[in-house]
Design a protein that fits this description.
homodimer, 535 residues, alpha/beta, nine-stranded mixed sheet, eight-stranded mixed sheet
């Protein structure tokens, strides 16, 4: 057969890069087999034949797998800019994320979503966006934006916009709420992400029939099994707080594993630094007895198939050359990451330069904030108080007696009764909501934060109105962030100037600040391990 | 949670049809589990909960699986109209076919493709069409049409048109022939079907890099393994002649089974009547030791996923209610078939009415055909002869001595030297190609056919020019078909008036005629089991 030069080139004989002497984790054939991988023009063009290439790397028997994908992540939870997030996860083998822009959209609306779309150009991480259907997530709070189906239309042509993010409003979905249905109609063939913790039976059936196709909130085999049987993809999740991989893993077998993906959902910077990213979940699964190829399929081809992403997620001919190289199938220490055929990380170090990121307005429309805004007139002898339950998002509702006769109600550190304020920052309404909380433990000072799910107004807790004002003012001054204040001094703070949610600093610095903030809060008596993730 | 009426209905509580007391082959969860299946508006709306429905069928523990899909079939090979094909395969559990219109397009071009698209409306069989890229399949013959990429454009918006059919011209593909590449560009994200028997190494890599994503021609584990590793879907094929399922099945395991589909490619009416359709392949696989759910996945969700067909191929919530009911997991005797929520076959009988089919021109532009057109002047003392090899498409090339001194060369039945004529029928060119064949065995009479891959001109073989003319005239008179003629009499014939390729008669009748034609040919001395599939 006569083969022309162009065809020889297409066959990889004159490739850009040849990965020689490697063991290929072939997620299509389900094997690990010795191979050569030829790459050209950002694609894999050959496997296992004899190629010539401009550059050849002898991998000395190392393992080669497709770059990993996080099927569902809120990048905002990393507290980092997209560039810094990429710099932290790409060297770990992640080359693609599907991000649900729920948090930033609740602050900045479409501009927030556009931040991720625009910031992703020029970095070696594919960032696919799911449009958040629940902005606002509740009518009870003032959020920074309101997004209807019509608002999303300008984004629908963007190839990075895949589908609809997690549909948290399951009661509304079951009731076929018109606003929700009109958003579902934007993506009649999906993908649409579900979010229905604990839902079962007829209500679950009705929810699925409306459109949502995945669940990352299942916490038991029984729950995941019903959802799997009823058609949902199951995303195994290991967030910083919600960790469900090992609970659900026993459900996975050779006839259904394709329906499982892996996701981190929300990982904070310390967790990214210590545990890593989705690669850490592969290691967990392998350690728990899952075949390494099956585990790797769950962070590669399974998710790419679920999202209909064509010729991605495998090291095979015609596929994007997004590749991770590691030493063995148990520890999977990543030594090299290739994105679109280019080496972008080695030995844990990102090799790509910082690119300018778009600005996002960090909205702090709070005028003349002072102690008078925190005054609460006494309404009687009793006070309704939230009782915090450590490591749970749940709170108890308590009623406590007031023991003094003051005109205004104040924090009472002797009884661990602390004032909590939510300061509206998006619309300049001047609204301040005040409550009381027990279980926080501050005996002096105050803390404040502009990261407060899901509307991300400023939230502060403190032993005195003065320190609360100080902490809130520090957050406003930084255009977002975390602050610990005592005796009028800022003891520690972290700037989050991107929408009040994210830093432009590297993961090491952000994680360090977060640890330091926790230490300072603990020194003030705080009993919570991680007060900034609670408030 | 408050649930409105509409939502309760969506949840299947007021369903159209309830399949109660069944064992569900759940191709998503990979299990067989007891279930109730609620159907409404042609979709599955509930599984396993408590529903009310207008009609309830107690299946008494029978098995319920998704309707089967044939991933690659040339319906023309059934010799039947689409309606009659549907009538023969739907009661066997097939509810979807992906048909590659290569044969009819080589005769009638776009009109041939439109025949399948139009004829599929109103019958309970989803017929998805792959556009044939090789029309004509060779420049050496006169076919009835020539289709370039531009010609396909009017069909691209049709939801039944999925992608590009089998790309048989692999040398041209490897050479990046411009006409082929422009057809591939019509479907940049596929699906595109491959056809590259025996291709391997760099040539295979180059072929795959150009676009083709599947292979149904692999005949060994080694061949299929290389193609699987290099990214191709493997279609296990059991055609009437080419049978490869058992050869390749050992390659299938729990980590790669999703990449395997099943197809019949070409099954003649006797085979459809005796072995059945893709369900027969599931039975073979199960008998060979494959888990029944894995085997059923290969005729359901695997193929639907491969073709990107959304919410089809599983009995699960939101999926099309295309369902097959059978008695057990070994013999799988089908007792009921449901299409879009309606019962369309019971106990092997189709329950749907015949619908009027569109006409397709049956082109027989052959004027004044007579014995003079078969005359071959003697060119020397030797004759080049094709030697047929029974049960293979391959032929040997022989050279035989002429033993007489006649001016014109005639068939010599004493030495089994038979004249073979190909009569151009599409363009009215008057072209007749004549050769000689050994191994056919006719001692008297002649046979003729208008089914002659891939251009489907009229082909005839005979012991005398007179009977060859008689057989050819009979085919022309019928506007297509098969004929056996001897001593000037038509001994048997089958009309194929749809493009000269297909009958409007039921499978039993077409199969009966085919058997009778073979018997008559055998009585005339024919040594081939199946002369009409050879010529």
């Amino acid at each position: 057969m006569a083969v022309g030069d162009e065809a020889r080139q297409a066959a990889g004989e004159q490739a850009d890069l040849l990965l020689a002497n490697c063991n290929l984790v072939n997620v299509l054939s389900g094997e690990v087999h010795p191979a050569e991988v030829a790459i050209q023009g950002g694609k894999v063009v050959g496997i296992g034949d004899e190629y010539e290439a401009r550059d050849t790397i002898d991998l000395g028997g190392k393992y080669v797998a497709p770059g990993f994908i996080d099927a569902h992540v809120h990048i905002e939870s990393s507290l980092m800019s997209l560039f810094q997030f990429a710099r932290s996860v790409v060297p770990l083998g992640t080359t693609t994320v599907v991000t649900d822009c729920h948090e930033i959209a609740n602050v900045n609306g479409l501009d927030g979503i556009r931040y991720f779309l625009d910031a992703s150009r020029g970095i070696p991480l594919d960032v696919f966006v799911m449009l958040p259907p629940c902005v606002p997530s509740t009518e009870l709070e003032t959020s920074g934006a309101r997004l209807e189906a019509e608002d999303f239309k300008p984004l629908l042509g963007d190839p990075l916009v895949l589908g609809l993010g997690e549909l948290m409003n399951y009661p509304g979905t079951i009731a076929r709420d018109a606003r929700i249905m009109s958003k579902l109609k934007l993506f009649p063939r999906g993908p649409v992400e579900g979010h229905a913790p604990g839902l079962s039976g007829l209500d679950l059936s009705s929810y699925i029939a409306a459109g949502p196709e995945s669940e990352h909130e299942a916490t038991s085999v029984a729950e995941a099994s019903e959802k799997l049987r009823k058609g949902m993809y199951i995303y195994l999740r290991e967030a910083t707080r919600a960790r469900n991989l090992l609970d659900i893993l026993p459900l996975v077998d050779g006839r259904n594993s394709r329906r499982f993906c892996m996701c981190t959902d929300d990982r904070d910077p310390r967790d990214l630094l210590e545990r890593g990213h989705v690669g850490s979940m592969v290691r967990m699964a392998v350690k728990a007895g899952v075949h390494p190829v099956t585990a790797i399929q769950m962070v590669t081809i399974n998710s790419f198939s679920r999202f209909g992403l064509f010729r991605k997620g495998a090291v095979s001919i015609g596929y994007d050359a997004d590749i991770v190289v590691f030493d063995n199938l148990e520890e999977m220490n990543v030594s090299m990451v290739i994105k679109d055929g280019k080496i972008v990380a080695r030995e844990g170090k990102a090799l790509f330069p910082e690119v300018p990121e778009p600005d996002v307005e960090s909205k702090f429309h709070v005028a003349h904030f002072g102690p008078s805004r925190l005054k609460v007139a006494r309404g009687g002898d009793r006070l309704r108080v939230m009782g915090l339950v450590e490591d749970q998002i749940l709170t108890n509702s308590l009623v406590m007696e007031l023991t003094d006769r003051n005109e205004y109600v104040q924090s009472d550190v002797g009884r661990d009764l602390l004032k909590l304020a939510v300061v509206e920052r998006h619309e300049g309404t001047g609204n301040v909501g005040i409550g009381f909380v027990k279980g926080f433990g501050l005996s002096s000072g105050a803390i404040a934060s502009s990261v407060a799910h899901d509307s991300h107004n400023i939230i502060a807790v403190g032993s005195s109105d003065e320190d609360m004002v100080g902490a809130i003012e520090q957050v406003i001054r930084m255009r977002g962030g975390f602050a610990v204040v005592a005796g009028g001094n800022v003891l520690e703070s972290l700037e989050l100037p991107i929408a009040g949610l994210m830093s432009r600093k590297p993961v090491e610095e952000v994680a360090g600040k977060l640890k330091s903030l926790n230490t300072k809060a603990k020194e003030l008596g705080c009993r919570l391990e991680d007060p900034f993730s609670v408030i």
